[in-house]
Design goal:
Rossmann fold, alpha/beta, cytoplasm, 191 residues, 10 strands, six-stranded mixed sheet
Length: 191
């Protein structure tokens, strides 16, 4: 998606450890007009699917998922929480996730009542690096007995193994921008 690539080149900053900082438009300050275009593109790519719910992991994926949901007829968005909360009740679906940027393992959780075997799920997230968040969400969907239509990623780090890992599982993966390589002053996208 050319608009996104241009924005990454204009406002993205590469930090040590192959961290791409896009907080001015994607995951701290949110450019809602850009999110709307992302939603339009995900809707185009998954046009043949009857999506019943969109899921993501808190926090960066929530804003994107909410805008994307509007392009699928305002389907509900359910997000997995990263910490146990007193207002989570009933049966929980859980998965262990290793965070690339946070450098630790945490349990994501979602109340079972929000997913059913009748659901056709679209997973949305801001980044894909090692694939651990997606694997955790896929595990939660499997626990619920729901179907996964696919995963929509805003930015995939193609030089890391997450995309390959998800694709090898036979999961449809649509990434709007795939970064092939990045250095302190250069970001190269996959064709």
């Amino acid at each position: 998606m050319q608009l996104l690539k241009e924005r990454i080149l204009k406002d993205g900053k590469v930090k040590p450890g192959h961290i791409l900082k896009v907080d001015s438009f994607l995951n701290h300050q949110m450019d809602v007009a850009l999110f709307n275009e992302l939603g339009r593109e995900f809707a185009r790519r998954f046009a043949g699917e009857k999506i019943t719910k969109i899921i993501t992991v808190e926090a960066s994926g929530i804003g994107i998922a909410a805008i994307v949901a509007q392009h699928f007829g305002n389907v509900p968005v359910v997000f997995a929480k990263k910490t146990l909360s007193k207002n989570l009740d009933g049966e929980l679906l859980t998965a262990q996730v290793r965070s690339y940027t946070r450098g630790g393992v945490y349990t994501i959780q979602m109340e079972r009542k929000f997913l059913s075997p009748d659901d056709n799920i679209l997973i949305i997230d801001d980044f894909l690096a090692k694939g651990q968040a997606l694997l955790g969400l896929l595990e939660i969907v499997a626990q619920a007995g729901a179907k996964v239509a696919g995963c929509g990623i805003v930015i995939e780090k193609g030089f890391q193994d997450g995309g390959q890992l998800i694709r090898e599982k036979g999961v449809r993966l649509e990434s709007l921008a795939i970064i092939e390589s990045m250095t302190d002053d250069t970001i190269t996208f996959a064709p």
